Amino acid sequence: MEKKFMGVSWSLGVLGLTMILFVKSISVDAISCQDALTTMMPCKPYLTTEAPTPTPPCCQAVSTISAAATTTLARRDLCRCFEKAAPALGVIPDKAKLLPQKCGVSVPVPIDPKLNCDT
Questions:
Q1: Model-level pTM?
Q2: Mean pLDDT of 12-30
Q3: 86: Cβ–Cβ under 8 A, 6 or more apart, which residues?
Q4: 68: closest CA among 87, 83, 81?
Q5: Gene3D superfamilies of this UniProt entry (predicted)?
Q6: 68 vs 63: CA distance, rounded Å
Q7: Given a cut of 70, is residue 114 above it in pLDDT?
Q8: How far apart are CA 119 and CA 36, in angstroms?
Q9: Spatial distance between the Cα atoms of 111 and 74, rounded to a whole number of angstroms
Q10: How far apart are CA 111 and CA 96, in angstroms?
Q11: Which of 88, 66, 64 is nearest to 79 (CA)?
Q12: Side-chain-side CA neighbours of residue 91 (13 Å)
């Protein structure tokens, strides 16, 4: 009985470790839309008003999002997320286009409301 219990415990431990590693690999490679929008909140004053330059926390957010967009799927999902959220948040499209340049951050996909997220 004790051997059977140890075998089951060991199997459950391996299964648990496998699940943790699987979930961890998913979360490293992607960022949820909500998390991306929350991360970008320091940019709202620049993106929605006449503020001439983004703040350092905003530029750090741009860098963080750019680093999280490591796959084509992640970039496409972020593109769709920002495409849907920008009008509701009052984002000025021309300022969104300039944001990476103003922050000195290279982004894999241009920030452009006219961009087709599927390409």
A1: 0.72
A2: 38
A3: 93, 96, 113
A4: 81
A5: Plant lipid-transfer and hydrophobic proteins
A6: 9
A7: yes
A8: 21
A9: 14
A10: 6
A11: 66
A12: 24
